[in-house]
Design brief:
Number of helices: 4
Helix content: 40-55%
Structural class: mainly alpha
Number of strands: 0
Shape: elongated
Distance between the termini: 68 Å
Strand content: under 5%
Largest sheet: none
Low-confidence stretches: none
Order of helices and strands: HHHH
Protein name: Phosphate starvation-inducible protein PsiF
Oligomer: single chain
């Protein structure tokens, strides 16, 4: 399928989602907004990032970085 590259391109953007989740979330948007970029992975990704405000909420979430858990501050050494 021509949109196979889409899931590969999005893998870098949304590490927590599976390839199938990415495909389900963004395939329609890719066809609707970036038809001329298909099948070029880099062009699809660039197009969708450029049109991120037009993406469906589910697809837009694929381009939002997964927040990293904050590390607790290192304990201060005891003085005494």
């Amino acid at each position: 399928m021509a949109l196979t590259g889409l899931t590969f391109a999005l893998t870098q953007a949304a590490g927590a989602a599976t390839r199938e989740e990415q495909k389900q979330a963004c395939q329609g948007d890719a066809i609707r907004l970036c038809t001329l970029a298909i099948p070029n992975e880099a062009k699809i990704t660039a197009c969708m990032k450029k049109k991120i405000d037009q993406l469906s909420p589910k697809c837009r979430a694929m381009f939002t970085p997964v927040p990293q858990a904050k590390k607790a501050p290192a304990p201060k050494p005891k003085q005494g």
